[in-house]
Each structure stands twice: as structure tokens, then as C-alpha cells.
Amino acid sequence: TQLLEQSPQFLSIQEGENLTVYCNSSSVFSSLQWYRQEPGEGPVLLVTVVTGGEVKKLKRLTFQFGDARKDSSLHITAAQPGDTGLYLCAGASGTYKYIFGTGTRLKVLA
Amino acid sequence: NAGVTQTPKFQVLKTGQSMTLQCAQDMNHNSMYWYRQDPGMGLRLIYYSASEGTTDKGEVPNGYNVSRLNKREFSLRLESAAPSQTSVYFCANGPGVVGQPQHFGDGTRLSIL
What we know:
The complex is a heterodimer. In chain A, strand 7 and strand 8 form a beta hairpin. Chain A is mainly β. Chain A is globular, with a radius of gyration of 13 Å. In chain A, 0% of the residues lie in helices and 55% in strands. Chain A starts with a strand and ends with a strand. By secondary structure, chain B is an all-beta fold. In chain B, 0% of the residues lie in helices and 50% in strands. Chain B has no helices and 11 strands. Chain B has strands at 4-7, 10-13, 19-25, 31-37, 43-49, 56-57, 64-68, 74-78, 87-94, 103-104, 108-112. In chain B, strands 2, 4, 5, 6, 9, 10 and 11 form a 7-stranded mixed β-sheet that branches. A 4-stranded antiparallel β-sheet of chain B has the order 1-3-8-7, with no helix packed on it. The termini of chain B are far apart. The relative contact order of chain B is 0.34. The chains are: A mainly beta, B mainly beta. Chain A binds chain B through residues 1, 4, 6, 9, 30-31, 33, 40-45, 48, 50, 88, 90, 92, 94-103, and chain B through 1, 4, 31, 35, 40-45, 48, 50, 58-59, 90, 92, 94, 96, 98-107.
């Protein structure tokens, strides 16, 4: 069974601080996605990483895919209250399926 | 999310009752999915349909059935609801190409007493 473990599970920080969220597995994934979910809504895709070692930036968010394609990280620089939400990683399993991580709930205090 | 519509948004059932969760997409994507989301466990795949006319089990299919009625619609049925099925259910679609995004509905919050 493929599993994706995210850490930390909860994170509460002050506006302006930096943070990193980790997504780890013992399995190799052909691609990995990061989603953000806000209360009462479904997850929304932030980024997809495909190549081992790949780094993608989305404004203040930096995503990295591990060289072995088993892990990924999300780094947020100068966090803002608008970054508050549940962050989920999802690894592609086969052609159609995705395995989701356990989630990191982030709260950024003004 | 205009692309994926779920009904109902909320439902309370008694143990043993049955119900069907409806999902419809207007994005013409081939693949559709049903997930459940429980605290601390992320999203777990219940069933998916790679294309019209096909369905396959995901990680947690026990107690559920699905129907891919046509390309637009993918329903999830609980034949005899149990308290362990209390959860938030999400329907999603996707083009069926790995790496392409899934689009999610806003969820159905289901409580079983």
C-alpha cells in the first residue's frame, strides 16, 4: 500500500515567518501534486512536479520534488493570513489514481 | 467550483438507511472519482471511473457502490449506512492523464446517527 506522510500535521505561525511542509513516502511516484483546501470547499491544485529534483515557484511558494521522486517539500516565504488552509500532497499511482497525503493544516496569524 | 457539482451539500441519516450522492461535471473529462475525507487522514479514494462505462475500486470501497451513468454523471450509493461512514465526500474529475489536475466539487457532509 502506498502511503504519503505529511509533516507537520498542524502549524500556527505569525505573519511574515517562513515555513516548510514535507511530504514523504517509501514509494516512487511518476508525478506529485500539491493542493490547498479552504473550509467548505474542495482542494484546488497549486502545482504539479514531474521530474526528480524539479523545483517550481509560485509567487512566495517554492515546491521541490525529491531526486528519487519519493518525497516533496513546500516552502512558503513571508507567510500571509491568506495562506491559511489545509495543504495536501498527492502522488500519481498508476495511470488514473492519486494517493493523497495526510494533510498539513496551516494557520497564519496577523 | 462550477465544473463539478455535488448534491446534496449536507445530509443526516440513521444507521441502516440508504442514499445516493450525486455528482455531475460540465468539463467533458473522462475520469471521475469519489473520495472521503476524515480528520487527520487526508483524502481516501473510494471508487473511480477512468472512462464512461468503467468503474474500479479505490482504497476504501467497502460499503459503497457507484454508477457511471454517462460521461457527465458519477453517483455514489450507500446501501446500508453505518456511523463509520460519517465523513465529507468529495467528487472529482480529471482528464485521465497522470499529472493533470483533478477538479473537485465542494463536498457533501454526511452524518450517520
